Amino acid sequence: MIQHCVIGQAGSGKSTFIEKNFSRDECIFFDTGSMLRGMFSCLKGEQTSKNVWDFANPLVYSVYKQCCTVSQDTGYEFVTDGFPRNSSQVKNMHMFLSSTPHENSIIFHMLDISEDEQIRRIEERNGKMSEYHIDRISQSRKDFDSVLDELERIMDTNNACNISIEIK
Prior knowledge:
Number of strands: 5
Largest sheet: 5 strands, parallel
Shape: globular
Helix content: 40-55%
Strand content: 15-25%
Strand order of the largest sheet: 2-3-1-4-5
Radius of gyration: 16 Å
Order of helices and strands: EHEHHEHEHHE
Number of helices: 6
């Protein structure tokens, strides 16, 4: 299985990058944020974390695993938009892929933008910044850094011979 993980802070251009680089007719797509917002839009103001609902991970992992299975069975590449979002999701993704008997090639596309650029893009998209947006920017930057740290740890200690990891 070939998987492309497009990750970055809120407003970094993940969806735009995917649209420009991957054909909808040739890949399996997993847009975590879009899926969750669509399912739970009534809970928009109920988040305790500004980057993910606390209850969402089991659902995200279940859909992710199913997408991996479909990708493996069909040979279609798998593209994730915003997954993994934090170090916990990186650990779970790696643990799952390490447990499969299949060869897995994971390519991480890192979209890192400055905080000033991030603020400009979010203001352009949403208008005046609210406390929610300010908190989300801070959280998304911390989460992005935690993903990088966890990937570095995994790459330094990766004993799973069925996973190759590339960072772009």
